[in-house]
Amino acid sequence: MERLQKVIASSGYASRRKAEELIKAGKVYVNDQKVTQLGTKVNPSDDIRIDGQHLTLEKKEYYLLNKPRGIISSAHDDKGRKTVVDLIETNARIYPIGRLDYDTTGLIILTNDGTLAQKLAHPSQKVEKTYIAKLDKILTTEDFYQLKKGVVIEGKKVIPTKLKIKSKDKQKQTSLITISIVEGRNHIVKKIFNQLGYDVKKLKRESYDFLTLGNLKSGEYRELSLEEIKKLYR
Q1: Sign of CA dihedral 93, 66, 69, 208
Q2: Distance CA 232, CA 127 (A)
Q3: Is residue 86 among the annotated active site residues?
């Protein structure tokens, strides 16, 4: 037997947190009985309905996408804009783990495995993510070492796990910086550079823990291997 909210999340219907909200709101029925108590355990054979809809346990799917610029990191968009889910050919109810900004490109994982999504999104996991940032001016030596020591963003110090000047364009007065962080706050990379007076003109996520883009072009994706999935769980 497993907890009801975990079963809902594992089905791909919603995240664990959203599943808990649905249960507390009285929208979940097990064998025609309303369940509002978190932690209620159910059997695989139980009939689970959410808002009258029968819960179908889907086969787990895992994708690595090279997100293009101008795509929303969400399963749905109220404004009708294209999302990362629209780029993947599947009937499963997948959704992205974490997010990349509308104008940020690069590696993002999508799945209908709510347990893995919650695990990777939790701050305690300290998943390292590596980005290449194009700055609007040359990063000074002084600011480079200040970044290595860390900067305070919204009351909390952020220290990059890796930092490297990839290239400088003195003619255009821009620089490319490779930066790795374990932070997961929104717009965190842009905020790090903004703190020292730099604007990020372009931002691309190159890796997520051990996963890299490899030869994937913008908009392309691939399924994760069983070994990669096991490694993410570990």
Answers
A1: positive
A2: 10
A3: no
From the candidates 32, 78, 86, 101, give the one annotated as an active-site residue: 101
What are the CA-CA distances from residue 74 to residues 32, 55, 83, 115 (Å)?
32, 21, 6, 18
For the chain, which domains are there?
Answer: 2-54 (3.10.290.10), 62-124+211-233 (3.30.70.580), 128-208 (3.30.70.1560)
pTM of the model: 0.78
Q: How confident is the model over 68-121, as pLDDT tens digits?
A: 999 999 988 889 899 999 999 998 889 999 899 999 999 999 998 888 888 898
Q: Is the dihedral of CA 44, 227, 73, 124 positive or negative?
A: positive
CA nearest to 94, candidates 65, 54, 52, 130: 65
What backbone torsions phi and psi does residue 139 show, to the nearest 5 degrees? Answer: -75, 120
* Block residue for tokens 């305690």: 124
